[in-house]
Amino acid sequence: MKKVLDHIGVAVRDLEGSINFYINVLGGELFDRYRSEAAGVESEIAIIDIEGARTELLMPTNNTTSPIARFIKQKGKGVHHIAYRVDNLDIAIENLKKADIRVMEHTRRINKHGRRLIYLNPADTEGTIIEYCDYP
Question: Which residues form the VOC domain (predicted)?
Answer without folding.
Answer: 4-135
